Amino acid sequence: MQHNLYGLDIDERAGQLAYFALMMKARGYNRRFFRQENIPQPMVYAANGDAELSEFGSLVKVDELGDKPQPPDELTVANVGAELKYERSLLGWQYRSLLAQKYDVVVTNPPYMNPAPKQADWVKKNYPNSKSDLCVVFIERNFDLLNQNGLLSMITMHSWMFLSSYEKFCESLIASKDIIKMAHLGARAFEEIGGEVVQTTAFVLRTSNLEDYIGSYSRLVDVTGQQAKEHLFIEGSHIYDVKKLSFKQIPESITAYWLSESMLNTFEKGNVLNSIFRTISGSSTGDNSKFLKSWFEVSKDKIGFNLTSSYNGLIYKWIPCIKGGGFRRWYGNLEHIINWENDGVDLKAFATMKNSGKHWLRFLKSLDCFYKEGVTWSKITSGVFSARFLPEGFILESAANAIMTTNSDTFSMLAFANTHIAQKTLGVFNPTINIQSGNVANLPVLDLGNNASIVNNLAKECVEICKSDWDSFETSWDFQCHPLIPTMEEQNE
Predict the structure, then answer these.
(1) Are residues 94 and 125 in the same domain?
(2) For 448-471, b where at least 16 C-beta lie within 10 A, e where not — what string?
(3) What is the pLDDT of residues 38-62, one digit of tens each?
């Protein structure tokens, strides 16, 4: 208990409870434990008044420990304050002494949260690769506490495995550590925590670097409930044995352990989409009720339909606008218009005013891509990813993103975006319901070669079929007649 177990906590009461639990556990093993002349004391400490430790706890790095505080020479009424100061400084020194050591094993369940505002600068300075979430900061910190070939066991949010903000952290992890075992739990891993917000992964890492090391990964994200996940883990099913070097093939070093060999090869053989085409996000109006309307709320002669990229924005007040929408592939969700009178002068002024005088260019995005043809998708999708044809003459709002293609490649990229391969690969870059432009930008694109014209023609046919379906209802501005009502020609026949 004195030479193998060490514990630190930022909260004094938690430290006391840990101390008590260890003493009771020792008593459970040895009934004479409290009758000894020198009762072993657990090495468990809390921050206990030290300003830096109380704020940052075991994230504090101790390069030089300094001398151990000494008690006052003589305890009198006059120096009671000195005695209290000594006790606090001793506890702080003991806490720091554990941070100055190296260990064979570190085990912890860190906090899942962004650094508080007063912590942000300190965390950014000391942990630049993992600064976005404290649970990832603790992974990086705990490596420093380990001996060579030491083991780190934690349970954290799984965000560091996927988000681009942790790219440097993941690169460092792959380059210098080995992932021994992982249980990717996902959502609903604990009965005490409901909902989909907390998605976790538990793992054991080792401070070694074996290039051909094969780690074992349990994928438990597709089952619900603590008992079901536990059963599958113990049973040993849903296991993937993967070389850590495989992750280097994936952009941003994402830990996509479940990908097949053929999927991994697409990253090696293909070109990353953003090396061929530009992906963009739409512009936020800051007040959709003020600047957006449904197309049927405005007289049709005030709307600039079917504009080309050469349009200068001076004729019509309202311009067709893409604003996300529900699941629909190939064509559709063309329902809104945006106030872009005189090249958007009102919206630009509003954006500047709303953001404390900062120039509107910082908030209205991708203006050079207005009115151009491309491939679009809704940023928020609760199910399967769906891409649609973006005709010329549209402006993108923030709920929509797009691939800005050349006209000859639009339909082949649309076809690719609607494949099962693209859907599965997007799950690698972003397992959430928000598909960002950066996620699509990382998709690997293979050369179609002689099949390009076949794919283009099939995609055009799909667009025509879906356009006909979209235009068969009154919600389309190209609506002519409901499909269940006979046309005049059919009636005459």
Answers:
(1) no
(2) eeeeeeebbeebbebbeebbeebb
(3) 899 999 998 877 788 888 989 999 9
The confidence score (pLDDT) of residue 324 equals 84
- The β-bridge relationship of strands 336-339 and 292-294 is antiparallel
Looking at the domain assignment, is residue 263 inside a domain? Answer: no
Tokens of 409: 């490649």
What's the total number of domains in the chain?
Answer: 3
Question: Which residues, in sequence order, are CB contacts of 85 under 8 Å at separation 6+?
Answer: none
Do residue 322 and residue 457 come from a single domain? yes
On whether the CB atoms of residues 270 and 419 are closer than 8 A, the answer is no
d(CA 166, CA 253): 9
- For residues 303 and 405, membership in a common domain is answered with yes
Note whether residue 492 is domain-resident.
no
Instruction: Please answer whether residues 136 and 169 qualify as being in contact, where contact means their C-beta atoms are separated by less than 8 angstroms.
Output: yes
Q: Are residues 237 and 337 in the same domain?
A: no
Residue found by looking up tokens 């609903």 in the block: 188
What confidence tens digit (pLDDT) does each residue in 82-130 have?
777 777 888 888 899 999 999 999 999 898 888 888 888 999 999 998 9
